[in-house]
Amino acid sequence: MSVDTSAAAPEARAAESGGRYPGLALVVIAAAQLMVVLDATITNIALPAIQNDLEVSDAGLAWIVNSYALAFGGLLLLGGRAGDLFGRRRMFRAGLVIFTLASLLGGFAQGEGMLIGARVLQGVGAALAAPSALALITTTFPQGRPRNTAMGVYAAMGGLGATVGLLLGGVLTDVLDWRWVFFVNVPIGVAVLAGTRMLVEAERRDGRLDIPGAITGTVGLVALVYAITRGGEHSWTDGLTLVSFGVAVVLLTVFLAVQTRTAHPTLPLRLFADRSRWGSYGTMLFIGAGMFATFYFLTLYMQLILGYSAIRTGLAYLPFSFGMAVAAGASSKLVARYAPRLIAGPGLLVAAVGMFWFATLEPDSSYGWHLMLAMVVTAVGLGLSFVPMTLGAVSGVAPRETGIASALLNTAQQIGGALGLAVLATLSASAANGELPGAASALYRGLATQDVALVERAGAALTHGYTVAFVAAGGMFLAGLAVTVFAVTAGRQREESPGGGTPEPVHLG
Asked: Is residue 267's pLDDT more than 50?
């Protein structure tokens, strides 16, 4: 498959000439991407403080994390389509406004329902902004070295955002108050909005939004995650669990049926005709599943088992940020010399090694040998994987569908994260409770009564559950490796056009 980017489409002309201030434009896009991605994890470290202040139930606490991921991932396709139809810069701005206002609402939340509602609205805003941000790279930066560099920075923000969220969440929670994990988005959002005039707009497309598809797809995913979560907490034969699974199957089946019949689908199935492209999406699904769950369990391990404070937990993630930044920077240069699977494949293998290293944790493990080194190994592996998968997802896509194609990449990561957390949390809880029934409750009870023996037993049981989750996360990275090796067939990304003229067409397959 090939796409001639020298066609006389407005997107091609704009990208060839570039924006007037490409450096500032890249800062705007990178800042927006960092903001929407870090909110997937910034609340993790603040969860104990939120629970204590608002008296949030254990189930509600999990939904504070997953409600954002599900709204974000479930509506990304609609957001990408809206950008194609109504203007990418316009939708980028609309998403930033919604996200900023929702963050303000979350900071002022007075109860569990209000906070979860604010998180859902944050997800809606992120779903409008994120796909347009990636698509705007194609209209602001010419193909070759400038676009590869911009893609590298964008991909680094996607990977670093989760870690920065954990670090920032710890600092804000300890130094100020948990509400500042939401308030911090307000000045950032306003600044990014002011800089959107630097971005190059693309031509709008004809068509309409696929509302039935968006509703059935999003609600179906919510039902699936709820069924997995409830099944782990109660029973897989529980009536409500089975009903939720049934609703998920029906709605997701209807979603696929709608996509094959509507003239303007939310998810154009023809995008999956390219083997390398669906391979990139599949790989990113597994990366999201393993990475998001890793942050969740490592945070619990450090705070509950090792007794770290919120800020110390955030600082403990600095090696992860460093490893991710270095590897992503190297990867953005390697894609000009090697095919994506030759970079992402070894990266995922290294990330899996990091997960199996985490699986050796004990209740008294040291930070330097067991945590820091394993973090660096995992981060380097993931950093090598993000850039080639990002480029593979949008390479060879017709200009009119770059919004949808880029939205699918973000959808895969967010939905993978939500599903991965639901599955691995279930495995972890089952393993911990097998060692000590009600392990989590027993730990809190032991801390409250200063029962040292109970605290030790509960800590050992919970640690066992976390290590089971890390093994499963390593398996997810290996599954991503298998998809990469057998499906991602894209060639290297050229840095320069022959003779310095019109960009060469991108060839896939």
From this structure: yes
